[in-house]
Amino acid sequence: MPSHIDGNADHEPEAAETSCASVKTKLCLLMEFHLDTRKAGRLLIALAVLISLCGVVIHIGAIFAGLSWLRFFNAPQSVLSSYEAGTWLAPASCLVIAGLMGTCAYYAASALGVVRRPPLQRTGLLLMSAICGVRAALLPVLAIRHPELRNTFEILAALIWGSAGVGFMVSFFLTS
Q: How far is residue 168's CA from residue 46's CA, in Å, rounded to a whole number?
């Protein structure tokens, strides 16, 4: 029954105000969710930067800390033999890996606006994310045939670098 017939015409503006307030509330909630999502994204990116920088410190530190660090961080036998023999493979491989991890940190930090935007930023972030994701996803598959990969270090490393990969992917999506 129309409101003007039952004498409740004064309720129409109230209903319109209520629905307008409801829409405003929903928009505010959506904006809060978006802001919370961006904040969470920035935290994931910062985590990727931190993981990468820790990798740099570990790999450079391994050059100076010696054989015990190389063994602890599961360096390949060829690197261990190189360190014992005093050849270039151990320090060179540590420096190359530290450089790659430093590049990862720089690219992710650029997504946060901390450093200047590097060339091919989005391509680099996508590639870094893919490499970290593949590294994390391959461990369970490889561990089936290689029981030496079934240890706490390898599992934690896969989880940590998988998390970094998520941060790089978020970096990719938040940059333009």
A: 10
| Coarse DSSP helix, strand, coil percentages of the chain, rounded to the nearest 5 percent | 85, 0, 15
Torsion on CA atoms 33, 36, 38, 39, rounded to nearest 10 = 180
| Residue 167 in this model has a pLDDT that exceeds 90 | yes
pLDDT digits (tens, 9 = 90+) for 15-26: 555 555 666 665
Cβ partners under 8 Å of residue 161, min gap 6: 51, 132, 135, 136
Would you place residue 149 in the very low, low, confident or very high pLDDT band (cuts 50, 70, 90)? confident
Residue 108 tokens read as 């992710």
Q: How far is CA 93 from the centre of its chain?
A: 24
